[in-house]
Design goal:
331 residues; alpha/beta; 8-stranded mixed beta sheet
Length: 331
């Protein structure tokens, strides 16, 4: 009953939530539209993730149609997609169920975000997507501050017309040196319902280890008054298809800083994982994962090596050229 109620509530919310930004096909940029009646939007941004380093080719994902023409947008040459799970939060440290409670990073989490940024400092980034939760936003900002291009990440405030107007940048040169950070509640962590704030070990002692494991690791069974992974995937993957894929098609390089379950959902979509495979997928905090979007396919390139690691990262030809360009700028 709780699962059914939560699912209907989620669907109802999605229908009421008007998109607060649109995709400009000509410019390949984000454009703003009316943002009244938008869903949970007090503060928005987020993303993060990791896996093993082997490359793989994912079958073509169906590209969304352009909202203006009704046709599939023209494909670009090659785009980078970086996924990062946020660094350790204060409630991760305390072993508490966090879910959608807005908890910041620990000092360790801050360092994880900085190290993640060092791993992607030679990979182009044109736009950042993150959840509405501060731990993902902190991760996105701290990671981007390590980038060699030295562009400034700026949160796009589209929660109201006034917020949009008051946060305008009127220097074209400054705009060129900035990266938009778009926050979206759809990328939030799975909502853990009545488990939020409870100690994980004490909860297992109270309800039984098997019951808690079922709530945490099953695909379609939610905790009391919370979301299942399936419900989280519905909103996260829908947003990814509607808002992020068009940016990749337009040739934009995208970074997503988010959460274990919202990223797990997106990876399930990219890698064509089954519901059984995705529940065993573990994502490390602060370790970025790189995909290349080319000719309608997502190619997994693994995790870029850290600056102090001996491993050689398999750059594509275009990424190698970008790094050479950066090397020339700092000489």
């Amino acid at each position: 009953m709780a699962a059914s109620t939560s699912q209907h509530a989620l669907i109802s919310v999605k229908r009421r939530c008007a998109s607060s930004f649109g995709y400009d096909k000509k410019a390949g940029n984000v454009r703003f539209v009316s943002a009244t009646n938008c869903c949970p939007s007090s503060r928005k941004l987020g993303l993060v993730y990791a896996s093993n380093s082997q490359s793989s080719v994912i079958e073509p994902t169906q590209l969304p149609s352009s909202p203006e023409s009704g046709s599939t947008p023209k494909k670009s040459g090659e785009s980078a997609l970086i996924l990062i799970r946020h660094g350790e939060s204060l409630w991760n440290e305390k072993n508490l169920f966090t879910g959608c409670v807005d908890v910041p990073l620990t000092p360790k989490g801050v360092n994880e975000a900085i190290e993640a940024g060092k791993r992607i400092c030679n990979i182009p980034v044109d736009v950042i997507y993150t959840s509405s939760l501060i731990r993902a936003q902190m991760t996105a900002m701290l990671a981007m501050m390590q980038h060699r291009r030295k562009k400034v990440p700026i949160i796009v405030h589209n929660e109201s017309e006034r917020a949009h107007q008051w946060s305008q940048v009127y220097s074209e040169e400054t705009k060129k040196q900035s990266i938009p950070v778009i926050t979206a509640w759809q990328l939030n962590e799975r909502m853990y319902g009545e488990l939020q704030g409870l100690n994980k070990q004490e909860t297992a002692d109270r309800f039984g280890k098997d019951q808690v494991h079922e709530w945490r690791r099953s695909y379609d069974i939610p905790p009391p008054n919370g979301e299942s992974l399936e419900m989280c995937a519905e909103r996260a993957v829908s947003y990814f298809k509607d808002q992020i894929i068009p940016q990749l098609v337009a040739g934009k390089h995208v970074m997503i800083a988010a959460h274990g379950n919202s990223l797990r959902s997106i990876i399930m979509h990219l890698d064509k994982l089954t519901s059984q495979e995705v529940i065993s997928l573990e994502l490390s905090t602060g370790i970025p994962m790189l995909y290349i979007f080319k000719e309608g396919k997502f190619i997994r390139r693994g995790s870029p090596a850290g600056p102090s690691e001996a491993g050689v990262y398999a750059y594509t030809k275009n990424l190698a050229k970008y790094r050479q360009k950066l090397d020339g700028m700092v000489q």
